[in-house]
Structures are given as structure tokens and as C-alpha cells.
Amino acid sequence: MEHLDDFNGCRVMVSAGASGIGRAIARAFHERGARVHVCDVSEQALAAAGAELPGLGVFRADVAAEADVDAWFAHALADLGGLDVLVNNAGIAGPTSAVGELSVEDWDRTMAVNVRGQFLCVRRALAPLRQSDRAAIINLSSVAGRLGYPMRAPYAASKWAVVGLTQSLAIELGDDDITVNAILPGIVESERVNQVVAAKAGLRGIPEADMRAEILQHVSLHRTVPMDDIARTALFLAGAAGRSITGQCMNICAGVQTLR
């Protein structure tokens, strides 16, 4: 049986792959022998990722900008010589606001990064993926892509859109033997979540531990999700065990029941 973790020679591109979940995914593929190329909007994060992972390809790009995506793919494909796995990880949180108070600019920017960015990357990835015998597209959505999320409508709407894009592409690209799946993370253990907990605790005037417990009250496992769990799911979907899985939404969320 083929070793599930054998990615030697596999060519992988990860958007927003220099920090957070993207970096964890890039690291996981890199550690298993894949050739990995990432883009990010932060030069500092790209430098840090490149220092941590020797041989990692890095490129500054905003996935919402068509010219940036075209330039990243031109650079990465010249470096990699082809493509086997595209991980559409780039996304932003968007505003926290009631719908009536949202600005059009905030709405448009959230949709541009979270949805338009995935479309732009997939469009450029199709030709090289059709030349691969292990082609996979992995789109990062969110548990907010299956649940309503009050005060976070742009984010939730964009993540539901990613699910629709994923399931549509899975059907459309089936004849090319390209698998297309989405990962829906829950509350991921990260510095950003720690900052959210601290901010909410400060507003409420309660200890951070109490705030965290309240947030996790509607999570079955009553804990956050380690980033490495998201990365391992990406490996599974791109590996031998995932070759017959397509059009699916993998909820890696510790059992989130509702979002508050």
C-alpha cells in the first residue's frame, strides 16, 4: 500500500502560506518532501517562513489582485516545473458589525480576498493541474461556512460561497480527475484567537479564562483546534487516501454547534 505521507516530488502552492494555518500547511508538506511555494501579503512573514523552511519558494502577492496572482503563478510554476496541489488558504476576518452599519468597502474587500482570490488562483492552476496524475485543490472555508454568524455576515457569506465553489468545481473538474475539497476549521488555537478572547474579556470585564470557557461552551470537545490538525487534513486530502474524495466539506472544528 502506498505510504500515505510520501510527498517526495509533489509540487504544492499555498496562498497566504507564510503565517498561521497556511504556514502550518506549507510546513507539513515541506517536512514530507514536497516542493512548496507560498505567497503572502507580508514581506516579514515571507522572510520568516523562508528562514524556517529551507528551499521554500516565497512571493509577495495579494490574491484579490489579478495581476498579483498571475505574477505569483508565473514565478511559482517556473520554479516548480508544474503543479500537483493548490491550497487556497488566503482569507481575512472582515468586519465585526451589524449589517446596517457595514461599509460597502468592508463587504467588498472580504469577498474579494475570500472568494475572488480563490477563483483567480483556481483559474491559473487548471492548466498545470490537468498535467498532474495526483491533482488536488483544497479550499479553506470555515465552520462559518455552514452556520450563521451574527455580526460577521460578510465573513460567513464568503465562507458559504467557498463551499458552493468547492462543490461546483468538484463536479466540473471530475473528468480531469482533479479532486476538490474544502476544509472548514473551527476555533483554531492561534494568536488571533487569543487576541479575540482578550479583547472580549476586556469589554466584558471578566477574566480571559472565563471568556474562553464561554466561547467554547458550544463546542463539543470544549477546546480549540490545533493548527496541525488542519495541516494533517490537507495532507490526507492530497495524499493517496484522498484520491476518491471530492466535493466534500471536512469539518475540523472540535464539534462547533453554534457561533455567537
Automatic annotation (TrEMBL):
It comes from the Bacteria. This is 3-oxoacyl-[acyl-carrier-protein] reductase. It holds the Pfam family adh_short_C2. Gene3D superfamilies: NAD(P)-binding Rossmann-like Domain. It comes from Achromobacter pulmonis. One of its GO terms (molecular function) is oxidoreductase activity, acting on the CH-OH group of donors, NAD or NADP as acceptor. Belongs to the short-chain dehydrogenases/reductases (SDR) family.
